[in-house]
Amino acid sequence: MDVLPNKAEEKLLKLSADPETRKEYERREKALSDERSRLEDAENTGILKVAKSLLKGGMPLNEVAKHTPYIEQELERMLKKQMK
Fold first, then answer.
1. What is the tally of helices (H) and strands (E) in the chain?
2. Mean pLDDT of 56-79
3. Which phi and psi (to 5°) does residue 29 adopt?
4. Does any domain span residue 68?
5. Is the dihedral of CA 53, 56, 59, 61 positive or negative?
6. 40-63: b or e for each residue (b if 16 or more CB lie within 10 Å)?
7. Residue 84 — very low, low, confident or very high, per pLDDT cuts 50/70/90?
8. pLDDT of 1 strictly over 60
9. Residue 2 lies in a domain
10. Which of 39, 56, 66, 70 has the greatest number of beta carbons closer than 10 A?
11. 68: DSSP letter
12. In angstroms, rounded to a whole number, what is the distance separating the alpha carbons of residues 82 and 80?
């Protein structure tokens, strides 16, 4: 029994055959990837600023790490790297 492609699959096949459409898709994917990277960098920067503030206020690193998405060693490495 042959399975016929659904409309979405048909459209995808047609679009992927067009080089200009494929290039536009790749440009869009790159732009989205770049934006995700910028947002991730901004989030990490914010987390590290808060972590530094908590450390300056006397909170131990292991406690600060509990309030971040990072384990203690990773947070320490990131903070040292940022200090350079």
1. 4, 0
2. 96
3. -60, -40
4. yes
5. positive
6. eeeeeeebbeebeebbeeeeeeee
7. confident
8. no
9. no
10. 70
11. S
12. 5
Residue 72's closest CA among 53, 56, 51, 57? Answer: 51
Domain count along the chain: 1
Whether residue 82 contacts residue 46, with contact meaning beta carbons closer than 8 Å, is answered with no
pTM for this predicted structure: 0.64
Structural domain includes residue 61:
yes
The Cα 75–Cα 70 span in angstroms is 6
Within 10 Å of residue 24's Cβ, how many Cβ atoms?
12
> Tell me, what's the pLDDT at 47?
95
Which domain covers residue 76, as residue numbers?
7-83
